[in-house]
Design brief:
Length: 259
Amino acid sequence: MTVRPLHDPRAGVLRVVGLLSGSGTNIRRILEHERKLAAERGQSPFELVALFSDNADSKAAEIGREFDLPVVVRDIRAFYKRRGRPKRDLGLRPDYDRLTVAALAPFQARAAVYGGYMSVASEPLIRAFLGLNVHPADLSVERDGKRRWVGDHAVRDAIVAGERTIAATTHLIEPEVDGGRLLMISKPLTVELAPGADLADPTQAQAVEQHNQNRLKEAGDWVIFPLTLQYLAEGRFGADESGVLHFDGRPIPKGLRAS
């Protein structure tokens, strides 16, 4: 069985673009980790070479100024408005993504990190970059052969269903939303519930979701997302002929659990 690295470090430093739609906190943590590795080693195995945002009101420009990075902004709302179509019309998304890929082509990046990028990626964008995302749930949990905690409200759904711990997952960007192959899963975080919290009350459930998702971002996303990119750039993640992912030569069909 042959296992090929997703990135071979002999080809050089992994060039990465950061995609974001909002505050970009995940992108900041990755940039901070890059600087930390460069200070410790003299060079980081990866380099964020540009930022891209689909939202003109995001923090992309601010982060670009802070970290001296070029920034490309193509507001997706304006794209759809100009064409008289609603954003939910995914039939138009490949056109948007082709223009995005063209705008990012000069930076010669091989990978993309989806740091709170809220637009569904279509085939042109998926094909152009080795994409990495972080999701606020343990995507290895399945029911009837399907991933259980997917979608925008995965944290709330897990807590309402009675889960006592939550975790974050990094995965490859592949055609099915939240369906990409798993890379890393963070340490479990115990759910915090206020005494007497009524999860049947939508307002209370939303507050519980937001509180625990914020905790998970710090304890999960900000830990495993930079580390996943580091391991990828170091050549430690690979895939065999059947597409099963490996870490340091060992198969990880359910992801690598952080220790």
